[in-house]
Amino acid sequence: QEVTTVRVQDPRVQHEGSWNSYVDYKIFLHTNSKAFTAKTSCVRRRYREFVWLRRQLQRNAGLVPVPELPGKSSFFVGSTDEFIEKRRQGLQQFLEQVVQNVVLLSDILLHLFLQSQLSLPQIESCVQGQGPQTVTEAILHYAMSNCGWVQ
Questions:
Q1: Of 61, 82, 83, 114, whose CB has the highest number of CB atoms within 10 Å?
Q2: How far apart (Å, rounded) are the C-alpha atoms in residues 69 and 82?
Q3: Interhelix angle for 120-127 vs 108-115, to 10°?
Q4: Which 3-state string (H, E, C) describes 21-82?
Q5: CATH number, domain containing residue 86
């Protein structure tokens, strides 16, 4: 039986105190699914990259409903830590639902999002065959670089 475990963990504020600060999250994936090139991977992504992923999945999935992301609230009542934790939980729920959906799971963009540290423009050009590597090469290159493996 195929099992895919995806965890969104370790939120980190980047550029703290500056106007362009943001939070990114570690996405840990462990699977025995034939759908994935690497069986274990670990990447960091920020909220706006999840928004991009959801939009791409929606565009490619046709009538298949794509799970919702947690809201982008700039008027959150409570501490910043509470907000970050709620968002982390929402992002994890989103990914758990996505990897359980066979149609969404077949989207190459999802695999590059979860298993490479390519930027969004690099993911798009890789999928269109305009990058220096194939999708599989990009994922394996990242996995072999040790960045993709949990230390």
A1: 114
A2: 17
A3: 140
A4: CEEEEEEEEEECCCCCCCCEEEEEEEHHHHHHHHHHHHHHHCCCCCCCCCCCCCCCCCCHHH
A5: 3.30.1520.10
Phi and psi, residue 10, nearest 5° = 50, 60
The single residue listed with the structure tokens 């090139």 is 37
pTM of the entire predicted model? 0.87
Quickly tell me which residue has 């980190």 as its tokens.
12
**Token code pair at residue 151:** 């230390």
* Pair 136, 35: CB distance under 8 Å: no
What is the spatial distance between Cα 117 and Cα 143, in angstroms, rounded to a whole number? 10
Q: Is 94 helix (H, G, I), strand (E, B) or coil?
A: helix
Contact 96, 67 (CB under 8 A): no
Residue 131 Cα distances to 67, 97, 118, 123, 126, angstroms: 29, 29, 11, 8, 4
Give the per-residue pLDDT at 1: 87
Reported as a single tens digit per residue, the pLDDT across 97-125 is: 999 999 999 899 999 999 998 999 999 99
**Domain tally for the chain?**
1
